[in-house]
Amino acid sequence: MSRLLLIGPPGAGKGTQAVRLAEAYLIPAISTGDIFRSNVKNETPLGKQAKAYMEAGDNVPDSLTNDLIRHRLAEPDAEHGFLLDGYPRTTDQVRELDEFLNGHGAALDAVIELVADPDVVVKRLRKRAIEQGRSDDDEAVVRHRLQVYREQTEPLIDVYDGRGVLVKIDALGDIDEVTERIIAALAERGIALPDTAPEGVL
Ligand code: AMP
């Protein structure tokens, strides 16, 4: 079982790939964005606190996010492996995740960076705005999210590169192709698909 993390700008395809990889590696995909969206939809206290930040394309404060992820990672299905999508996004969140993993005698096996050109990403998100009606996919908000990514999240790539766990993947092209690229790159690092992976995942 592996502990993996997907990192990349909004619109790079993290959510899509996370679901596919989770199925292939038999680990839960944990998306902080999805968890926040479902809290907003259900009007929970957390959702009410997160809503304005999300709509503006800003990061939800670390205190809320760290709390949420600490509880989620402590659930039994994440004990032996997980795929994080959209977390950590700030250096404070990296510190929090490190602390959690150290406390459990665990570490990340790989950090998968989905590399995508900003212009392509903006185009993809414009399409998603129409298809899925996500209010934070509005063009001005998208540009702000990209800026937040560059300022707050991109620096994490060097941190993980320095630890020798970074795997860079070209995120452009066919969805299947990108999944195959990730699986091949992970295999090269000794992270193999489980023998019991369900058939037809790819
Ligand atoms: P995503 O689905 O990953 O693009 O996330 C959608 C929105 O949820 C982001 O723009 C943030 O407002 C919020 N969010 C998701 N993950 C995090 C995180 N790790 N830290 C702070 N805010 C987050």
CATH topology: Rossmann fold
β-strand number: 5
CATH superfamily assignment? P-loop containing nucleotide triphosphate hydrolases
Question: Portion of residues in helices?
Answer: 40-55%
Q: Give every kind of bound small molecule, once each.
A: adenosine monophosphate
Task: Strand order, main sheet: write it out.
Answer: 2-3-1-4-5
The CATH C-level class name: Alpha Beta
Question: What is the CATH architecture term?
Answer: 3-Layer(aba) Sandwich
Q: Calculate Rg over CA atoms.
A: 16 Å
> How many separate structural domains?
1
Largest sheet: 5 strands, parallel
Provide the residue-averaged pLDDT: 92
Portion in strands: 5-15%
**Class from helix and strand fractions:** alpha/beta
* SSE pattern, N- to C-terminal: EHEHHHEHEHHHEH
Alpha carbon gap, first and last residue: 19 Å
The number of distinct helices, counting runs of at least 4 residues, comes to: 9
Descriptive overview:
With 202 residues, the chain is α/β, with parallel strands linked by helices. The chain has a single domain (3-188), classed as P-loop containing nucleotide triphosphate hydrolases (Rossmann fold, 3-Layer(aba) Sandwich). The protein is built from nine helices and five strands; from the N terminus they run βαβαααβαβαααβα. The chain has helices spanning 14-25, 32-41, 45-56, 62-73, 91-103, 118-132, 139-153, 155-162, 175-188, and strands at 3-7, 29-31, 82-85, 110-115, 166-170. The protein has a five-stranded parallel sheet with strand order 2-3-1-4-5. The model has no long low-confidence stretch (mean pLDDT 92).
